[in-house]
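Running this now, will post back.
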Amino acid sequence: MIKFALLCARGHEFESWFQSGEAFETQSKSGRVLCPLCQAADVTKAIMAPAVASKNEGVRAKPPAQTEALSGAEAQSKMALLDPRERESRAMISAFRRRIFDEAEDVGMRFAEEARKIHDGLVQDRPIHGQANFEDARALIEEGIEIFPVPPLPDELN
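Update: finished.
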């Protein structure tokens, strides 16, 4: 495990542990490294002082233990770090997602197939949600089938 000092595009500094330098690069390129303060995905390594072990102490920094879900108080504390617009945006996305997942049928990986059937009138028109890869989503749009990506909440990406 290796700990990196990180810097987001908005200037927030934070630290995070990774399996290796390559693991950081892979996760960063795929947008999975997010600033904990603003959720920006544009994150780079910052300059940091190396941890030097004395002969009696060893290296003091240890990787974090298995992470656990935030308690209600911790989650509220984390939300308090966000500015009002970010809190409002998160609340709107959360409400939007909750409504979709409560009211629409989850068709999973059959999303493209089911969307076509509905569009072509082969099955009853109904709200659906599911997953589609980039090629299937592009094909649906090119066929004139209206789809809308449901954004994940930042906490779901961590």
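The first helix runs from residue 21 to 29. More later if anyone needs it.
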